[in-house]
Design goal:
By secondary structure, the protein is an all-beta fold. The protein has no helices and 15 strands. The protein has strands at about 1-5, 10-20, 25-35, 40-55, 55-65, 70-80, 85-90, 95, 100, 115, 125-140, 140-155, 165-170, 175-185, 185-190. Strands 8-7-6-5-4-3-2-1-15-14-13-12-11-10-9 form a 15-stranded mixed β-sheet, with no helix packed on it. Strand 5 and strand 6 (about 70-80) form a beta hairpin. The model has no long low-confidence stretch (mean pLDDT about 95).
């Protein structure tokens, strides 16, 4: 359970639910937030996604997201015979290498890969992850000893609104991402609130 803040104000949530049955793991994601200015909603996102893994191998990912009433989607399947992902998305349709990770904040593997698939549109984004240092942070009354990372687009010539530029705080003890922040029309933070 992650809370989403913009300029210090709570504006929504990003929930992840895990179901395990034998070798299969299903991760369900729900996200909802809205940004208001002078009482009017200027930006709204609501979405749902489902990742399926068998023995740690991503088998499929499906998502639907409404972003300011514009529908975005991803339908990804693992082609076992050709050892690749096949993607049909609102921004990209085609093949992708299996090293790609779905760009969701529940998995620390996002810090170990050099390429991710957008969980909203299916586009493939090459990335560079840099270790910044160790730090202690407080969040919801708990203190975490975390590793701080920067996650940036490999191609920094991309337009700013398409570029990856995140600060990520990772707790090695729990193997969980505790906080993510970025600046894009304001200062955003995803903060881990609860986990079971």
């Amino acid at each position: 359970e992650m809370d989403i803040f913009r300029n210090g104000e709570l504006i929504g949530y990003n929930y992840y639910f895990f179901t395990r049955k034998g070798d299969e793991t299903i991760v369900t994601n729900q996200i909802k937030f809205s940004v208001k200015l002078l009482g009017a909603t200027i930006f709204r996102v609501e979405g749902y996604g489902e990742e399926k893994y068998v023995k740690d191998q991503l088998i499929s990912y499906n998502s639907k997201t409404s972003q300011n009433d514009k529908e975005k989607f991803v339908n990804l399947v693992f082609n076992k015979d050709e050892n690749k992902f096949e993607i049909k998305g609102s921004s990209y349709s085609g093949d992708a290498h299996i090293k790609n990770i779905i760009g969701n904040w529940w998995s620390h593997k996002i810090l170990q890969t050099d390429s991710q698939v957008s969980p909203i549109s299916g586009s493939i984004k090459e990335q560079v992850v840099t270790f910044v240092g160790e730090k202690k942070i407080e969040q919801y009354g708990k203190t975490y000893a975390v590793d701080h990372f920067k996650l940036n687009s490999k191609d920094m010539s991309l337009p700013k609104d398409k570029r990856l530029d995140f600060d990520i705080w990772f707790d090695k003890k729990s193997s969980m991402i505790i906080r993510v922040s970025y600046s894009r029309i304001g200062n955003w933070e995803y903060r881990l609130k609860n986990f079971e």
